[in-house]
Amino acid sequence: MTYSLHPGAEHDIANALDFYSEQAGSVVAARFLEEFERVIKLLVEHPSLGTPTTKGRRAFPLKVFPYSVVYRNLESSIRILIVRHQHKKPDYAGGRR
User: Which uninterrupted H or E stretch holds 26?
Assistant: First the structure.
């Protein structure tokens, strides 16, 4: 199984990396990216791990950072739709497919 990133999810990740780089330094930003990659690897291996949400989506939280990965489990891959800060409104980027 593989994964793909929605362009909006790429933007979400870039924003988080910019924030952590500016506020906490490059080491923390690198840790965020490592945690994101760890979660993606886990979800590719076990796509049903996330909590079911609406519209056939699932959400899975990052361990150390207050973000969740919102994705859709497709037949042979997962599609990462949103990398959402957990304090944003639940409907943030809800129109992504």
Answer: helix 26-45
Can you name the CATH fold of 2-85? YaeB-like fold (3.30.2310)
Give φ, ψ of 59 to 5 degrees: -130, 140
User: Distance (Å, rounded) from C-alpha 15 to C-alpha 33?
Assistant: 12
Q: Where are the domains of the chain?
A: 2-85
- Report field, pTM of the whole predicted structure over 0.85: yes
Determine the residue type at 30: A
Sequence-distant (6+) residues with CB within 8 A of 51 are: 58, 59, 60
Cβ–Cβ under 8 Å, residues 43 and 3: yes
pLDDT value of residue 82: 96
Q: Is the pLDDT of residue 94 over 80?
A: no
Residue pair 83/57 in contact by the 8 Å Cβ criterion: no
Rg for the chain (alpha carbons), in Å?
Answer: 13
